[in-house]
Amino acid sequence: MRLLFELSGEHPALPAAEAEAVAVAVDSGTRRFLSEPGLLGLELPRRHDFPLERLAYTHAIHRHLFSCPLDVAQEMLGAVRLGEGTVRLRVKGLGGALRGPQKVALERKLGGVLGEGHRIDLTRPDIRVRLFVSEKAHAGVTLFEQDKRAIEGRRPVRRPFFSPVTLHPKLARALVNLSRVPNGGRVLDPFCGTGGILIEAGLMGMRVAGSDIEWTMVEGARQNLQHYGMTDLRLFQSDIGEVPLSIGELEVDAVVTDAPYGRASGTRGEKVAGIYGRLFRTASSLLGSGKRMVLAVHDPALVPAHPDFRLVQAFEARVHRSLTRHLMVFEKR
Ligand SMILES: C[S@@+](CC[C@H](N)C(=O)[O-])C[C@H]1O[C@@H](n2cnc3c(N)ncnc32)[C@H](O)[C@@H]1O
Questions:
Q1: Which of 308, 318, 303, 320 shows the shortest CA–CA distance to 328?
Q2: pLDDT at residue 112, rounded to an integer
Q3: pLDDT value, residue 265
Q4: Cβ atoms < 10 Å from Cβ of 123
Q5: Looking at CB atoms within 10 Å, which of 77, 133, 266, 289 has the fewest?
Q6: Spatial CA neighbour of 289 closest among 245, 332, 246, 241
Q7: From the first residue on, what is the mean pLDDT of each consecutive set of 10 residues in the chain (333 residues)?
Q8: What are the backbone dihedrals phi and psi of residue 316, each rounded to the nearest 5 degrees, phi first?
Q9: Rounded CA gap, 236 and 227, in Å?
């Protein structure tokens, strides 16, 4: 099964990494067959119900039809079998390819080919065909388009309990996805604050567990998660070092967390390096081999090396002028 991911241009590497992580969670045999600016092609060895709606930094997902030189795209489109229904073709240039009039002219010419076997409907087609053009042409049938309003509608200020320390839901969702947690898996956030990461994990169908040293945060997170209809909540007050005791027998598939920066989010006066050290010990005792911990931190130099974990990916996400978050993905050895 070959899928094309139409990626957001908000970050150079994070959107592709997020899509790939979810695909690997679905099928560990996933491989890249295509990587262009703004477009990623992934092949999953078997057919799956891909969790299309999970991805935060993907605009749309398409079933791959073909890739070919642009001058044979017309012929290829003519040979494609799309099934019953009305169709629409939209063309998109990648990496600055195709200016406005060129795009419209190409859409008319190639759309005409599809029109030979189907009725064209430009407003509410049954089948939406997308052609991406760079040096080559890549075609797909749209399976899913992101509803951007849904994620924006979950902005933290709209929650019953708000604190400025929380992440934007888009970034929170991407952190959960980078953990490769499978659908229905258990995500733990041991610095849960207002619950921003757990809200996204819960809305994606994960089971959630969270803790924080501050009781007010734990209760605030509870209110926020309930606000989004979540009921099976495992939330408790705990210092990061005591989490394994509080969590007991609960199995954890991934630790995903936005660690205290020692700035706005209080640490009760403790230096963050010591807190991070306890975080690694806690994560090591809870995660099995191959499982992931995804961390957002302010200063990666303060994150200690730990023999049980290897760093597999790192990204920078600029939040505003004076705050860049460093995203670090660790795998348990
Ligand atoms: C950056 S905030 C997390 C924000 C969270 N992602 C949200 O959506 O609101 C870090 C959290 O770590 C908590 N914290 C600080 N020191 C801690 C410790 N030693 N053990 C557990 N939690 C701690 C703080 O109370 C704070 O809520």
A1: 303
A2: 86
A3: 58
A4: 6
A5: 289
A6: 332
A7: 97 97 97 97 94 95 97 93 92 88 90 85 95 96 94 93 91 98 96 98 97 97 97 95 93 96 72 92 97 96 95 92 91 98
A8: -110, 135
A9: 18
Return the residue whose CA atom lies nearest to atom 16 of ligand 1: 267
What is the spatial distance between Cα 35 and Cα 266, in angstroms, rounded to a whole number? 42
In the prediction, which pLDDT does 269 show?
Answer: 75
Specify whether the CB–CB gap between 207 and 218 falls below 8 A.
no
Q: How far is the CA of 219 from the centre of ligand 1 (A)?
A: 13
Tell me, using a 6 A CB cutoff, whether residue 297 lines ligand 1.
no
For residue 296, give the ligand 1 atom closest to its CA.
1
Backbone phi and psi for residue 303, each to the nearest 5 degrees, phi listed first: -85, 120
For residue 325, the CA-to-ligand 1 centroid distance in Å is 15
217 Cβ inside 6 Å of ligand 1: yes
- What's the CA-to-centroid distance between 176 and ligand 1, angstroms? 17
What is the value of pTM for the model shown?
0.95
Residue nearest to atom 23 of ligand 1 (CA): 213
Is residue 175 within 6 Å of ligand 1 at its C-beta?
Answer: no
Nearest to 240 by CA among 203, 283, 209: 283
The domains located in the chain, with CATH, are: 2-146 (3.30.2130.30), 153-332 (3.40.50.150)
Pocket test for ligand 1, best of 159, 166, 175, 191 (most atoms within 8 A of CB): 191
